[in-house]
Amino acid sequence: MMFNKMKHIDKAFRHIQVFTTVVVLSCAAISFYAIRESRQAAKAAQSRIYLLANGKVLSAIAEDRKDNIEVEARDHVKNFHEYFFTLDPDEKVIQKNMTKALYLADGSADGEYKRLQEQRYFQYIIAGNVSQKIVVDSVIVSTDTYPYYFRCYATVTITRATLKTTRGMVTQGYLRVVSRSDNNPHGFLIEKWETLENNKNPHTEPR
């Protein structure tokens, strides 16, 4: 009789042991699953950014910079040239555009700006009611080596009271990665910038 009781107790203990093991393993599996899903949700949330456009908040997915580096680099170069070479006969407009441009480049751009000042080019723009506009035709960026080399092809149109002159422009330089900011959203800095051509196929026509 005593032997049967011990046998039943041993059997019940084994059942409890098995049940406890199953519960522990199930809890561990659930915990692992929950942690993994939480991490994936957090990663997805971090990659989602929100943009304010026309008073509306839009959701977007942020991409890894390496997947988009050439696009950002080309846009950085394009923005710099548009700021630097878009001039109107208004001192405040010129200063505003130049300030934006010089945030995107190093001393090589500042040196060119000072050279134009010394030549009284901006005074000529203002006094002659001249407008200058640049259209960037293409930007080639090489990301094989760092800093990244670029070459920019553009068309500059200078509009005077009676004449309009169009000329080709080719510039080159290098791009160094820096911290992003409100003044430099792409996080690049143009270095060793220089103009290779500024009179290719000039075309002048009366207005």
CATH class of the largest domain, anyone?
A: Alpha Beta
The CATH topology of the largest domain turns out to be Nuclear Transport Factor 2, Chain: A
CATH architecture of the largest domain: Roll
Order of helices and strands: HEEHHHHEEEE
User: Proportion of β residues?
Assistant: 25-35%
**Estimated helix fraction:** 40-55%
Q: What is the total number of structural domains?
A: 2
Structure description:
- By secondary structure, the chain is an alpha+beta fold.
- It folds into two domains: 2-49; 63-206, VirB8 protein (Nuclear Transport Factor 2, Chain: A).
- 47% of the residues lie in helices and 34% in strands.
- It contains five helices and six strands.
- The strands form two sheets. A four-stranded antiparallel β-sheet has the order 3-4-5-6, covered by helices on one side.
- Strand 3 and strand 4 form a beta hairpin.
- Helix 2 packs antiparallel against helix 3 (91-102).
- The chain is rod-shaped and about 110 Å long.
- The relative contact order is 0.11.
- The model has no long low-confidence stretch (mean pLDDT 83).
List descriptors.
Nuclear Transport Factor 2, Chain: A; 207 residues; two-stranded antiparallel ribbon; alpha+beta; single chain
